[in-house]
Write a structure and sequence with these properties.
single chain, about 160 residues, mainly beta, Immunoglobulin-like, 4-stranded antiparallel beta sheet, about 40% strand, elongated
Length: about 160
């Protein structure tokens, strides 16, 4: 009888050890991927200065020669982590032909010097400065934020 008790107990342990438990079978759930990082970029802010004074965007600036130095002061807070591009385009008001243009392809500087060139005496032109973030704003608009400002300029 003892022999049958030992065999029965052994059989019980074997069956219990082979039962399905809560262990992993290798093909269960897949791990959750980490969330995609979202980046929020502040709005673009800048001012255009000539001779350390902000230009009058509603007036006409009188240049003294065929070239005019300007500063584009980017005041965005926070500054885009990958920097900004700055584009300058100057066109004649009479026929919209291009007089001058230049750009800064990537900058993290607050103050950026550009030059308007090829101004002709008595010819009214419109200068457009466009600043665009190089950091993609994936949180609010999934875009590169941009801002343009224009002002009139003519050589005296």
């Amino acid at each position: 009888m003892k022999k049958w008790s030992i065999i029965l107990m052994g059989f019980t342990f074997i069956v219990a050890s082979c039962s399905k438990g809560g262990g992993s079978t290798g093909g269960g759930t897949t791990p959750t991927p980490p969330p995609v990082a979202t980046v929020e970029v502040g709005d673009i802010a800048f001012k255009v200065e000539i001779d350390t004074k902000e230009v009058d965007y509603a007036g006409i600036y009188g240049a003294l020669s065929a070239s005019q130095a300007i500063n584009v002061n980017v005041t965005s807070t926070p500054f885009a982590k990958d920097g900004v591009t700055i584009d300058l385009s100057v066109k004649k008001d009479a026929d919209n032909s291009v007089v001058s243009g230049s750009s800064v392809s990537s900058t993290t500087a607050g103050t950026n010097a550009l030059t308007i060139s090829n101004l002709t005496a008595g010819v009214l032109c419109t200068a457009t400065v466009t600043v665009t973030s190089k950091t993609l704003d994936t949180k609010t608009c999934n875009c590169y934020k941009t801002l343009s400002k224009t002002f009139k300029i003519a050589r005296k």
